[in-house]
Amino acid sequence: MFLEVKNLTKKYNKKTVVSDVSFGVDEGELLTILGPSGC
Hints:
This protein has 39 residues and is mainly β. Helices cover 0% and strands 54% of the residues.
């Protein structure tokens, strides 16, 4: 595994927008995370 993220949480001010996300990316792969608006 080239990159591994475990239990990621992101907040803007006090609002949680990502909670407990884990993923892995192998070398040569591309990962995109999109929200409801497509951004």
